Amino acid sequence: MLFSVSLCSWSCRKLEISSGSLARFADGSAVVQLGDTSVMVTAVSKTKPSLSQFMPLVVDYRQKAAAAGRIPTNYLRRELGTTDNEILTSRLIDRSIRPLFPPGYFYDTQVLCNLLAVDGVNDPDVLAINAASAALALSDIPWHGPIGAVRVGVVDGELLVNPTRAEMASSSLNLIVAGAPSSQVVMIEASAENVLQQDFCHAVKVGVKHTQQIILAIQQLVREQKITKRTPVKMFSVPTEMVEHVRQLSAERIYAVFTDYTHDKISRDEAINKVRLETEENIKEKFPQAEPFEVIESFNVVSKEVFRNLVLNEYKRCDGRELTALRKISCEIDLFKPLHGSALFQRGQTQVLSSVTFDSLESSVKPDIITTALSGIKDKNFMLHYEFPPYATNETGKMGGLNRRELGHGALAEKALRPVIPKDFPFTIRVTAEVLESNGSSSMASACGGSLALMDSGVPISSAVAGVAIGLISKANPEKPTEIEDYRLLTDILGIEDYLGDMDFKLAGTNKGITALQADVKIPGLPLKVVMEAIQQATVAKKEILGIMNKCIAKPRENRKENGPVIENVQVPVSRRGRFVGPGGYNLRRIQAQTGVTISQMDEETFSVFAPTPGAMNEAQDFIKDICKDDQEQQLEFGAIYTATISEIRDVGVMVKLYPNMTPVLLHNSQLDHKRIKHPSALGLEVGQEIQVKYFGRDPTDGRMRLSRKVLHSPAATVVKTLSEKQSISMGASSIHRDSRDS
């Protein structure tokens, strides 16, 4: 069964959704195709409840080399570990579909995305979101979908829906929006080249409009296949009488904690936990048959209710701030002198230490050919790595490795800063953002701290960047649970406001426009009106944060720090290139190993030398001068005859030296004698033997020294030259040119 929907950008292209022919043992399966790119997604959910007390959803998006007509480049030639792009795309799909699962549905559910074919024109990530939506909608798994997703780009001021990869290369906006029925939003992910607020809002509206076409197509498929959703064995919920008992017992005490503005994160958590433990003991006595989940969740329900009513009805936040107020912000730069750049950004109890490190362009991120073929990701010389150690939240845990959350937060902060990085910067830039304390919005604090550290390091960024998170507390319409009856938007949310709220809306940008946005929604859909208000509220807060940051450092340093890296171009004449590089690159490797520099060839005579410090550069320069120094070769005269010593016998000729410290050069068999020989031994030549050769300078194309022994049999070659003699050679110009051609 096949249904198609057309999405028009510059030209009408058909997006096709099909189901029923592949992977029929899965609970749900769908294939989405755009152009010649096809993605299949399957959904399977167990019928027995999980032991976990949350929605155990796993989404895996895997790139397949075969889909791009390639073979993996690793030793086993198989798909192995997941790449960053696969993890980020998996998170994208997860965030789009998770809000629509019914509350209390705690059944292990797995959504697998399989790339069937990739044409290199249409990216498969957005197709995977739509295929996941279709697979879940066409299954019997309880899910309040479908959703639709599109990518929106801007090329030459024109909005494009689902643009091609080539069009995206010149787009100033990369916006992915997932929409629910009635033009609601469930997920937004965007990176932008400083796009103006009004233009960004318009792009979101256009994207949501086009998602409705995809939703209608999936709904028609569901009607045609007459899908009936399963009735779970058990939907986890708390008995009403238990919740009412907790409300009477603890609501006032919880309210007192949330209205005590002297609390910080740790003391508030301890106070709430004390009330929790006492309440749970009482519940166990009154309801001895209650399950552990019901005991824990009954307190959570009341705690969440008190917290949200405080915001909705009294316009109060648990730290005493106004709904649109920022926490106290402080900034420091140049914390550690050895670092190329550093900054400490503190917002309330969220603290991020950012550092900048420069390295050669050779150390830029180089994705494997499969990732490039499937996702179009190419080399990048700017990266931001986000670290979240357990002590940041007063916990213990494993160190090392990279989890999906850290990767996602780092990718968002990197998107926020990338548009202001100069395209022609001569170094690879790595920003590390280490969260030392966390009480909400650490990813946006990483963007702020990263911006300060870049300016401290002297990177000429076009503008400072700041980010902020907007939260949402909403009240659903009792008659229509998918509609919002009332709501409050919160600026610069705390960790508890994120946990007990309905949205984490992160926006970053400059004073001029938006560079990154990520919206995680926890309710089945968000009206466009709320999205527009959130963007406006975040923009106001962003400008206020930039004002505070500018008091710390208003513009990048004019010069990089004295201990910073140095890059210089070294001119090596073609005649010296062989000696500079050395046999098999030996001299280059020796310089790099002993001085720590990185050397790369720019053109025939130019080599780029990167040194991590000025001292390393000075050491490398001395090394290079010593290697390239060859005073004796400068004394060689074109057309003169010299005594050469054989240092090695090879099949193709002999290696000879004209003076002791010279790098041996090859005297080919063709230049040993007028008669044709297959091996130098035919002439009785041995290692250590001295022979007479004629010098014809260096080859202008490859810089090799040109020597010949056979031309000495010519009557014109009568004078033997040594390095200690300064005699001229009596030769006609025509014979010199003739001998040069012979060699």
The outline comes out as elongated
CATH fold call of the largest domain:
Ribosomal Protein S5, domain 2
Number of structural units classed as domains: 5
Structural class: alpha+beta
**Helix share of residues?**
25-40%
| The first-level CATH class name of the largest domain | Alpha Beta
Task: Please name the fourth-level CATH homologous superfamily of the largest domain.
Answer: GHMP Kinase, N-terminal domain
Could you provide a short overview of the structure?
The chain is built from 17 helices and 28 strands. With 743 residues, the protein is an alpha+beta fold. It comes from Xiphophorus couchianus (Monterrey platyfish).
Question: Any overview of this molecule?
Answer:
The protein has 743 residues and is α+β, with helices and mostly antiparallel strands. The chain folds into five domains: 2-234, GHMP Kinase, N-terminal domain (Ribosomal Protein S5, domain 2); 240-314, Orthogonal Bundle (Arc Repressor Mutant, subunit A), CATH 1.10.10; 329-448 and 543-552, GHMP Kinase, N-terminal domain (Ribosomal Protein S5, domain 2, 2-Layer Sandwich); 566-629, Ribosomal Protein S8, Chain: A, domain 1 (2-Layer Sandwich), CATH 3.30.1370; 633-742, Nucleic acid-binding proteins (OB fold (Dihydrolipoamide Acetyltransferase, E2P), Beta Barrel), CATH 2.40.50. The protein is 32% helix and 27% strand. The chain is built from 17 helices and 28 strands. Strands 7, 8, 9, 10, 16, 17, 18, 19 and 20 form a nine-stranded antiparallel sheet that branches. α1 links the parallel β5 and β6 (109-117). α5 (240-258) crosses α7 and α14 runs antiparallel to α15. Residues 724-743 have low confidence and may be disordered. Keywords: Cytoplasm, Nucleotidyltransferase, RNA-binding, Transferase. Residues 639-710 form the S1 motif domain. One of its GO terms (cellular component) is cytosol.
